[in-house]
Every structure is written in C-alpha cells, then in structure tokens.
Amino acid sequence: MLQKWITSIGLDIGTSTTKLIVSKLLIANQQNQFTLPGCQIIDRRVTYASSIYTTPMLNDVEIDVQRLTVLLEQEYKNAGISLDQVEAGAVIITGETARKQNAESIVHYLAEHAGDFVVATAGADLEGILAAKGSGAIDRSAEINAVIANIDVGGGTANIALCQNGKVIETFTLHVGGRLIRLNSDGFVTYISSYLTEFLKNNSLILREGEKATFEKLSSICQLLAEETVNYVKALNQNSTLLVSPHTRSSIHPETIMVSGGVGAMMEKQKPKTVEEVAIHGDVGPLLAYHFQSIQVSQAAETTRATVIGAGMQNTEVSGSTVYIGSKRLPLKNIPIIEIPVQQEETWNQQLFQERARASCMQASTIFSAEDPPVAIALSHFPYCSYKMLQELAKIISAEFIACFKGAKCLVVLCEQDIAKALGQALAKQRKELEIICLDQIDFTHGDYIDLGLPVAGEAISVSVKTLAFSS
C-alpha cells in the first residue's frame, strides 16, 4: 500500500471572521493488480491555524479582495509554506458573505492560485452540515444512537442541523447572530439588522440606530433570540419570523443540543455585566452566548474552529467499455456528490427508491448553488439489475432530477457496479433534452466532490474524487 503526505489548506470566509488552517493529510493508495486505484485519507494533522480575523469588507455588500489577499499571503509566510507546496484544499464562503456581490469571483480567484481545491459558496443548509461535521455532532449522533442538534451561531445566522445515526436529517436557518446588533464602545447602537425588526416589534421591544442601549434591553433581546432558537429546534414552535427561508418543522425532538460557531466559543466565558462588557467586540455576541448557556444547551467540542481543514483526493481511470458520455461539457469541476441507495430492502421496491430519490434531490436543491450540473447522483447498494428494473431506475432518476433542478441541462450519474453504459442509454431515452454523463466503478462517499476530466484513452476519462477533511 503506497502512502503519501500532502499539504492541504482550509480557508473559511464567514460573515464576521476569516480563518486559515494548514494540514497534513496522509493519503493511502490501495491499488494492486486486481483492483482499480482507490485512495483514502487515513491520517490528518493540523500543522498551523491562523488567528481569527474580521472579514475585510469594502462596504456592506463587497468583500475587500486586496486586503484579503494580503492577509492570506502573510498567513502563508507565518505557516512557513509557499503556494507551490499546497497540493489540495477547500475554499468555503459562508454566511452573509456567500451572498455578497463578488463572492464567486473570490473563491475562484483563490482556488486558481494553489493546488486542486474544492470550491464552495455555502448556502445556509450546506453551512449547517459543514458545522455539524466539524463540531463533532454528526459523529456523536452515531456513537450514542440519538438525535443531536447542532446550532452554529455566527455573526449573521444560526445554522441548525439535526443529526441521527451519523447523518444530517434536517437543516434550517434562523436570523440569529452576534452582529445583528452592533454597538460602539459607549453603548450607542450603530446597526440593527432589518431581519430583527418584525421580531422585536412582535415582542414589544424597540431598538433604534443612534440610541444608547441599556443593558436590560439588550439582555431581554438576547434572551428572546436564544429562546426563540432553542424552542424552534425542540419543535416547541412550528414557525418563526426569524426563519431565513420557509421551513416546515418536523416533529423530531433532539435529545441533545450543542452550540458551535463564534457565539458558541464565548459560552464558557463569564456573563457580561455592563454594556461596555457586552460591546467588547462591537456587537452583542457575548451576551447572546450567555443566554444560550443559561437555557442549558451544551457547548460543542469544536466551536470557532469547527471548519474544514482541507481536502484529500482519490484518482481513478474509468473503463471506456462501460462509460456513457452524452455531453460536450467536459472537463467539469467541483460537482457535489449525493448518494441514493438503490435497494435497502430485500427486493427492489420502485416506490421506496422514488421516495429516497425525491428526498435526496429536494435536500440537495436547497443546499447547493444552481450550477449545471448541480450535483452528481451516486447510486449505491446496487443489486442485480434486470432490464425492467433498469428502465424503472432511469425513469425515476430523470423525473426527480428534473423536478428539483428545473434549469439543469446536464445529469451526472455515478454507479458502483459495471452498468453505466446501459443506464446512460436508458436515461438518454427518458429525457432527450438532458445531456447524460454516466460513469461506473467509482468509489464515492456522500458529501464528496468530483472532477471529470477529458477523455484520456478512447472513452475513458480521468476522475478526481475530493473529500472534505475535518480535524479529528
């Protein structure tokens, strides 16, 4: 088994803060004469963690690319690495910054300057999933066989993920964060988010920009924000004016609630007692943290550093005899993989597979940005497949994909088994307007990202599957 250490970086650009982590990932190549190449991350070590910086902004809608670049160049020097030493990484833009005017140009600019990067502009749902992985909530839900809620509270939003059996089963986001109210050192209010207006009015609390806030009023507001969040997470409330997007709360009640993010990190600190102590960071974060702590939710194992530390890669060459490529879009980069089990029952059940496909595609449509192709559908637990079953699979996959990704013109499907050419042909007959790329013998995991290269020998193409890595 061949092993190799690679240098990878994780860069997280959030609403309030930016941080860089340098890691060493040990990649093991298990290739032999009887199998296709297959690599996995078997060890990871964080070798450098930057200071946590305030995200540089030119104004409320534009990130300062020049200052951000200078900051990162200095951090590379502090870490003792150069750009040519970085072989892989992940650039994740989260929170309000993901909606800024130049977010997309920034991630691509950064990604082009070193290594082979996973690049993602994370919407609220994906941010919640990443935070739940980084905080340890997903692993913990598998260990104790319980539903765990992770609330990642940053500057602008609280991203919530409910985890069960090692998987995220529900995500939603509230306008709750430390920087929704900003104060100067004298306690005068310099900013109030418009998202709080209706909520405060409904609770008979009025706070205006320019007024000097009292400790009592700020405490009442933060207490209400914490209670509103936890009550919605517990399914005690079925609706909230603070929801970022419409959401139908399930009846699932988490057994444990943990808090990560910048506000989560402050939960271990003493309660601020004056407006000056509240405004130490220019916002209400410390007071919000205290009120989360006071309603007996736990601090996550990882809080402000609950983030991606980089990405590892596995490479394989796909057999040309089983590939179906009905598209001229290659090469394609950074396609998120969603896994859909074909058969979890003793026999093939068309209705249950359709339910799984619909749920997976609907969740993915809220998580990932509207690229084309938006996702790669990875079919696992693939049994023997008859001609009839193949046709039913193709019909369901194409129908659910089109229903959830209405603007998409390209469908990518990955299979564990040697069936891609036949399935690709069946998919092409179902939807003639869709460009179909169907590959097999791909080793994948839900949440990975895949790059598809140009043909290298006949129909065979090179494939790079990239796995986001978190500190362990």
Question: Which helices and strands occur, and which strands form pairs?
Answer:
Elements: E1 2-13, E2 17-29, E3 39-49, E4 53-54, E5 57-59, E6 62-63, H1 65-79, E7 88-93, H2 103-111, E8 116-121, H3 124-135, H4 137-144, E9 148-153, E10 158-164, E11 167-174, E12 181-183, E13 189-192, H5 197-202, H6 215-233, E14 256-260, H7 261-265, H8 275-278, H9 285-294, E15 298-299, E16 308-317, E17 324-326, E18 332-341, H10 350-367, E19 376-380, H11 387-404, E20 410-415, H12 420-430, E21 435-440, E22 449-457, E23 460-470
Report on this model:
By secondary structure, the protein is an alpha/beta fold. It has 12 helices and 23 strands. The strands form 5 sheets. An 8-stranded mixed sheet has the order 16-23-22-18-19-20-21-17. Strands 1, 2, 3, 4, 7 and 8 form a 6-stranded mixed sheet that branches. Strands 11-10-9-14-15 form a 5-stranded mixed sheet. Helix 6 packs across helix 9 and helix 11 crosses helix 12. The two termini are 23 Å apart. About 1% of the residues have low confidence.
From the N-terminal CA to the C-terminal CA, the straight-line distance is 23 Å
Question: Which parts are unreliable, with pLDDT below 50 for 5 consecutive residues or more?
Answer: 33-37
The count of strands amounts to 23
Report the sheet-strand fraction: 25-35%
The dominant shape is: globular
Report the average pLDDT across residues: 81
The major β-sheet equals:
8 strands, mixed
Tally of contiguous helical segments:
12
Q: Percent range for helical residues?
A: 25-40%
- Strands ordered across the widest β-sheet: 16-23-22-18-19-20-21-17
**Rg estimate, integer Å:** 23 Å
Q: Which structural class do the helices and strands define?
A: alpha/beta
